[in-house]
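Many introductory courses stop at the sequence. We go one step further.
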Amino acid sequence: MGLVLAAAYLALVGWLMLRPQYVTWVAAPNLRPLATIRADLSHPPLNAARELGAGLGLLAPLGVLLPMAGGRLRVSGLGSFARTVFTGLMVSLAVEFLQTGVPGQIFDVDALLLNTIGVAAVHLAVVPAARRRLRRRALAAAEEEADVAPEPHGVVSSIAGPA
């Protein structure tokens, strides 16, 4: 289920980010880290929060969807975090490179930073607690199953009378 949700979300991101934008003027690509973020912070607070929030939120759901696609409960927290953040970075890089061929879209290194930070923040906020809860639930189900163990095969119950 997680893999299907991740694929559907990536299709939505691709549709949103790779559509042509017909504008009369396009800025040059930003290859200087933090230049766009500084420019956004010079705007009024509400506009700055909207711009930065859009960058942080675009790929943030991947912070949960990617580990969910793996579906493993017993996994190293650091390994899961590293895999998720790296995959989020690669998805963001792919989107940014693909945007260079779309009219009206430009490459922005700050989008890579914001998208990756968004993936990392959501992963740290949700995944460890969710895995802990799911592990407890699985342990409780295993203990309950052990308490209600069926009788071994071939054992005749004393309730049944002679045949």
